[in-house]
Amino acid sequence: MKLAATLRIALRALRRNKMRSVLTMLGIIIGVGSVIVSVGITTGATKQIQDQVASLGQNVIYVYAGSYKSGGARGGWGGAASLTVEDVAAIKNEVANVVAISPEVRDRNQVLANGLNWNTSVMGEGPDYQQIRLWKLASGAMFTDADVRGVAKFAVIGRTVADQLFPGEDPVGQSLRIRDIPFKIIGVLEAKGFNLFGTDQDDVVIIPYTSHMRRVSRRTSISSIIMQAASPEAIVQVQEDVTNLLTQRQRGREPDFTVRSQTELGESATSTSRTMSILLGCIASVSLIVGGIGIMNIMLVSVTERTREIGIRMAVGAHGRDILLQFLIEAVTLSCIGGLLGIALGFGVQKIITYSSDWPTAVPPIYVIASFLFSATVGVLFGLYPASKAAALDPIDALRYE
User: Fold this and answer.
1) Cβ count within 10 A of residue 165
2) SS3 letters for 122-135?
3) pLDDT tens digits for 34-80?
4) Share of the chain above pLDDT 70, in %
5) How many independent structural domains does the chain possess?
6) Rounded distance, CA 156 to CA 171, Å?
C-alpha cells in the first residue's frame, strides 16, 4: 500500500509539469528509436547478404586459378592457366564428401538470336552446375553428361538473356549464335537477380564446358572449379583435401590457385554490415546516455524546487527511503515511457524506410526487450543521485527553504 501511495505521488508530480516531462523523455525517445532503426537497417542488410550468399548454392567451394609469373611477364589473380579438366577428375575420384563438381570456363561474348544481339557472360559448365547452384529451370532441361562428352551445341540461358533476345517468346527450341556457332536453347533458368558482388546472375548463357573449350574459346585449361560438399561440417575438410591434392599435382611448383568456400565469401560480405551495426549502435548508445544525463539534470532541478515539499513529507512521518523511492520512481517512469515511445518511433521510421526505399528491415524481439531494459536502467542509474540527494535533506532545513 505504501508503495502504491508513493507511486501515485510520483505520477502526480510528473503530471504537474507535463511539458518538462516530455522534453526530459525526448533524449530517451530518440536514443531508443535510434537503436531500433539502426538494428532494423543492419539486420535487413545482413539478411539481404545472407540471401544473396544462399543464392550461390549450398555448401559450395570454389577453386580459382591464381597469379602467374613467366619470365618478365606477370599476371594477377585469375590469370594463370593452371587448372585443368584432369584436376577436376582427380578431385572427384580422390576427395571424399564432394557430392557434385563442375569445371568452369568463363568468357564474355556477343550472342545473336532472333535478329537481336546481346553481350553476355558465356559459361562452360558441367551437368552438376545446376545442383551445386540450386538453380531451377523455368522451362526446358539441363544438358547431360552425354552432351558434355559429345561436345553438344546446347545452351541453357538466364532470364535476362531470354528477355533481351526473345521478348515475349519461349526461347526453348530456338537457336542463338556464339562466335557464329549455332547453339540450340534447351532450357531457361529461373530468375535469381543480382548476387552479393553486384552481378546480374540471370545475364548468362551456359553451355557444356567441352563445347566452350573446343568450339568457342579453344582453350586447354579451365577458369575455375566449383563443387558442393556433402554438409556444412565437411566444408573445411574438403577445402584442406582439395588444397593438398592440387598442391601435389603442381609437382613441386609454387601453388597458383586459391580455394575458397561459400562461408568465407559470406563472412567477407557481412563484415561491413557488422561494422556499420557497431557504429550505429555506439551512436544510439550515446543518445541514450545523453538522455539519461537530461533526466538527472531535470530531477536535480525538481529536488531543488520541491525542497519544502520534501520537508513537509518528512515532518508528517515520511522516511528517507520513501523520498528516495518517490524520486527514483519518477526517473524510472520517465525513462520507461520514453523507452516505449522510442520503440514506437523506431518501428514507425522503419516502416517509412521500407515503403519509401524498398529496403527490408527486421528487428529481432531480443533487441526490443534489450532497448526497453536499457532505458529503464538509464532511469535507475541517472535517477539514483538526485533521489539520494532528496532523501538526504534535513527536514528542518527543508522546511525553512524558500
Assistant:
1) 23
2) EEEECCCHHHHCCC
3) 888 888 887 777 777 766 666 667 788 999 886 544 444 444 454 55
4) 82
5) 2
6) 10
Q: Which residues pair with 205 in a beta bridge?
A: 122, 157
d(CA 127, CA 326): 74
Instruction: Please tell me whether residue 81 adopts helix, strand or coil conformation.
Output: coil
The pLDDT tens digits for 344-388 are: 988 888 888 888 877 777 777 887 888 788 778 877 777 777 777
Residue 240 lies in domain: 83-255
CA–CA distances in Å: residue 221 to residues 83, 123, 168: 6, 14, 38
Position 178 confidence tier, pLDDT thresholds 50, 70, 90:
very high
**Do 187 and 334 belong to one domain?**
no
Residue that the C-alpha cell 524558500 belongs to: 402
Q: Are residues 33 and 180 in the same domain?
A: no
> Do 246 and 292 sit in the same domain of this protein?
no
Does 306 score more than 70 pLDDT? no
Residues 340 and 372: their CA atoms lie apart, in Å, by 7
Do the domain assignments include residue 360? yes
Question: What is this structure's pTM?
Answer: 0.64
Asked if residue 69 is part of any domain, the answer here is: no
| Amino acid at residue number 378 | V
Whole-angstrom Cα distance, residue 387 to residue 376?
15
- Distances from the Cα of 370 to the Cαs of 39, 283, 334, 376, in angstroms? 12, 16, 17, 10
3-state class (DSSP) for residue 96: coil
Q: Are residues 24 and 172 in the same domain?
A: no
State which H helix or E strand residue 108 sits in: strand 98-113
